[in-house]
Amino acid sequence: MAASTAAAASAATTTVAGPALRHTIIAKCPVSKARVTHIHLPHYTAHTPMFMPVGTKGTMKGLTVQQLEQLDCHVILANTYHMSLKPGQQLLDDMGGLHTWMGWNRGMLTDSGGFQMVSLIDLSSVTEDGVEFTSPYNDGSRILLTPEKSIELQNSIGADIMMQLDDVVNPLCPRERIEEAMWRSIRWLDRGIKAHRNPTRQNLFPIVQGGLHPDLRRKCIDEMVKRDAPGYAIGGLSGGEDKKEFWRIVSLCTDLLPENKPRYCMGIGYALDLVVCSALGVDMFDCVFPTRTARFGNALVPWGSMSLKHSAFKDDARPIDPGCPCPTCAQYSRAYLHRIVTRETTAAHLISVHNIAYQMQLMREMRHAIIEHRFPEWTQTFCRRQYPKGNVPFWAVEALASVGIEVESTEKGYVGAGEGGADADGADADGAPVEKVDGMQE
Ligand SMILES: [Zn+2]
């Protein structure tokens, strides 16, 4: 590995993508669009493809920042919307930003606050000015989040990467509404760029909109690339659309976005989606899924997911995954976790540690495989392990074939978005039922 890493590194090209971001392409898969890059941020150099765990309210649910460091997290995501309400902007300014407040020294990305629109839609209304919310803290006050206010709050938080406020619409909305949201998001991007106070210390990423319409995505990317941002996000997906449409839009966007800048696909966290989108050329991902599903007692494993609530584990002395190097697997049995799962917060904590370790291990394996020019073979092995019965969802087979990676599947044609490694009868490889967890938001 050392030799091939050295060879890859010698071919690396570095781009100054902005005053607060340098981007080095370390290696490219000779078959697919997958790549390994280093994103040099003010607080940390992140290696991609990268998964960013999501913290809310200044903590990672169930994990300490020391654990996140030990688990090799390079960048975490914080919610601007929650942070702006509590502890609030003044306290963040007084404390010197969220890095100091929560004791995290590595990379941080903040969302604009707009994403919460989707989850709190009945509490919000959108106009050209911005988004108006009712405060969720029961004091009944109204909060207007404008593109300028979003940047002002994110400047106070001080994250390495900030996201523009965008007009969030479900990809299944009528085309007229999606087109309106796309043009509004471009106007809001310009207002955000003007309001940005720290361009030498913080990066502002635009969010590409346009729903499932290729022509709108093209127009949006045309406009946003003119703004010469340090990196770009693909937004407006994971809203219940068919996965066969989802991957085509992701692939179109990675074709059109600048090669020399980071590409971030928002709200992606299932293992199969991470692998497919990495093959399509995405560098960065985030999702609440691994920690959220942990709170429901589900552990992520190379063969899918494991519901520790199931009685099959009541006297199982093995760790969650005998091959996992995480502190939970080093110390605790499935039987122990089964005893306390969903009853004690310790269980959510221990399973969260394991699930984040799983995601980090998955991304690391992909990076090594890309650098060593064996990403297609690695992907085939991944699919065989996740789907021991061979029922790899057809959308993933199609997506991988589009970039030259052939994966065998017993699935004929499109059958729906099968997530995780659950067999058709809803049981995982250990015979325990796999619990589907719907909804990716906190
Ligand atoms: Zn583990």
Automatic annotation (TrEMBL):
Cited InterPro entries: TGT, TGT-like_sf, tRNA_ribo_trans-like
Entry cofactors: Zn(2+)
EC main group: transferase
Entry similarity comment: Belongs to the queuine tRNA-ribosyltransferase family.
HAMAP family: Q_tRNA_Tgt
Matches recorded under NCBIfam families: Q_tRNA_tgt, tgt_general
Name under which the protein is recorded: Queuine tRNA-ribosyltransferase catalytic subunit 1
Lineage summary: Eukaryota, Fungi, Fungi incertae sedis, Blastocladiomycota, Blastocladiomycetes
